[in-house]
Design goal:
The chain has about 160 residues and is mainly beta. About 10% of the residues lie in helices and about 35% in strands. The relative contact order is 0.28.
């Protein structure tokens, strides 16, 4: 597998639910918290498994600002992984860019309960962040899951 992506720090504001409360914790957060050391080509990250609909995926986890900013940027190989899960501390409206990404990716945005908020196909871009298109979800999300184009299963995200 070949992929790469970058997270742009464009509009990463923390949001609250309509009732003013923080989003509830889910099994997804528990899975991310229990992640173990990842193997090549991601030795500095952690890995876990999540489900999207009926599909079980082995993913690497980007759960801090540095990891989310790096994302899959300039990655030519996902190894045995199905994708990368971006975990945010609260609801987010962060934008993504494909700067230095050699292949198309699908990105799914999910709320704190794992419900799908949006899905997009992102095109490769060899340019800088300021030269590449910006991809945004249609609404606030808590998790973003990137896979190679065509590999993102439909359905709810769960731990």
């Amino acid at each position: 597998m070949a992929a790469g992506v970058a997270l742009a720090a464009v509009g990463g504001a923390a949001l609250l639910n309509d009732n003013g409360a923080s989003p509830p914790s889910t099994g997804i957060l528990a899975r991310a918290a229990q992640a173990t050391a990842a193997s090549a080509p991601f030795p500095d990250l952690t890995e876990t498994e999540v489900s999207v609909g009926e599909a079980r995926l082995r993913i690497v986890v980007a759960d801090d600002a540095t990891e989310r900013t790096q994302g899959l940027r300039a990655r030519a190989d996902l190894g045995d992984y199905d994708g990368m899960l971006f975990v945010f501390d609260a609801q987010s409206e962060s934008a993504f860019t494909m700067s230095t990404v050699p292949v198309a990716l699908d990105i799914g945005f999910f709320d704190a309960a794992g419900r799908s908020v949006d899905r997009l196909r992102m095109k490769p871009c060899a340019g800088t962040e300021s030269e590449c298109p910006i991809y945004r979800s249609s609404g606030p999300f808590r998790f973003a899951l990137e896979t190679l184009a065509g590999d993102l299963p439909p359905g709810r995200l769960s731990g």
